[in-house]
From TrEMBL:
Gene3D superfamilies: alpha/beta hydrolase. This is Lysophospholipase. It comes from Polyporus arcularius HHB13444. Coiled coil: none annotated. It comes from the Eukaryota. The lineage of its organism: Eukaryota, Fungi, Dikarya, Basidiomycota, Agaricomycotina.
Length: 315
């Protein structure tokens, strides 16, 4: 494999917003996955995991979400109106639809999967259950399956009611007002090198925009209360959890999984593991990769329909 196992590009998304992207091209690819990173996260942190998927014949397309990573912080390439934490759930869904259509058009022969981690896993759960576009039904129909990695349904430690009300009030007045929710790296992974990397990573910030944070929380809760009923009957899902996850609640995630009224679903748990399963102790991370790829390989002929046009995502 080359020293740089990916192709990076700055691509225009909805409204011409500039996004930092990476594509990890697999040799003899069997499938392609669109990866959505976690809250306050960025895709460069997952380079080793994405390269490992590519070695297993799964191409990965990843992008730094609006308001995060280089999409927000690269002074040379980011959009003039970009800033850290400046986003909303409606924009995130619209952006994700755009990139799913982009990947479908550029990989027409490959089954397409949606893969989300932590906060991005919560977005992956919400995405196919909206009551109106975006996304369009045609975009959802492109997916051969959803891979939800430690998805945010509820926080591991729920925010106090007064704090939630404060964030809600502030988000309606100043959507980008910064909050600083704690996220000790020791709660993300048991790998000491991963924990140490958080302190020196310039793209990992401690702040979050009020609107983005509030909408992320309430939509996860809505999925558990009612959104699960809107899950497409023919959309397979695999959900993967570390049993000791303290960032997001495994109990809430598994409750949601059990409510899904579909037959093609799989739940995988890893005893003692934390949030970032791709960066856990070596045996966990290797089993996580094997479990994901085995599931993808079992769904290579599932559901995928080619788009007739990309206009639904590019309005």
């Amino acid at each position: 494999m080359p020293d740089t196992p990916y192709v990076e590009a700055w691509l225009a998304g909805p409204d011409g917003h500039s996004f930092y992207t990476r594509t990890y091209h697999a040799t003899s690819p069997k499938a392609v996955a669109v990866f959505v990173h976690g809250f306050r996260d960025h895709i460069s942190r997952h380079a080793d995991v994405h390269a490992a998927f590519a070695q297993r014949h799964v191409t990965i397309f990843a992008y730094d979400l609006r308001g995060y990573g280089r999409t927000a912080l690269d002074s040379m390439n980011s959009s003039p109106d970009a800033s850290y934490g400046k986003t909303s759930r409606s924009l995130e869904i619209r952006d994700l639809e755009w990139w799913i259509n982009h990947v479908a058009e550029t990989n027409k022969r490959l089954p397409l999967f949606l893969m989300g981690f932590s906060g991005g896993g919560g977005l992956a759960l919400v995405f196919p259950t909206r009551t109106e576009p975006p996304p369009s039904p045609q975009t959802v129909a492109l997916l051969s399956g959803v891979i939800a990695i430690s998805p945010l349904v509820e926080l591991g430690t729920p925010a106090p009611r007064i704090a939630r009300q404060l964030v809600k009030t502030v988000s309606s007045v100043i959507p980008t007002f910064p909050f600083y929710p704690p996220l000790p790296p020791e709660r993300v992974s048991r790998d000491p090198e991963v924990v140490a990397s958080f302190a020196v990573d310039p793209l990992l910030k401690t702040r979050a925009g009020a609107q983005a944070m509030y909408e992320m929380l309430i939509q996860g809760e809505e999925m558990l209360e009612a959104g699960w009923q809107r899950w497409p009957n023919d959309l397979p899902i695999i959900m993967l959890w570390g049993t000791a996850n303290e960032v997001n609640s495994p109990r809430a995630g598994i409750d949601l999984f059990e409510k899904l009224a579909i037959t093609d679903k799989r739940l995988v748990t890893y005893q003692g593991a934390l949030d970032d399963l791709g960066h856990e102790l070596k045996d966990v991370s290797e089993r996580f990769l094997d479990d994901c790829v085995t599931w993808i390989n079992a769904h290579l002929t599932t559901r995928r329909r080619l788009p007739r046009t990309n206009s639904s995502a590019r309005r």
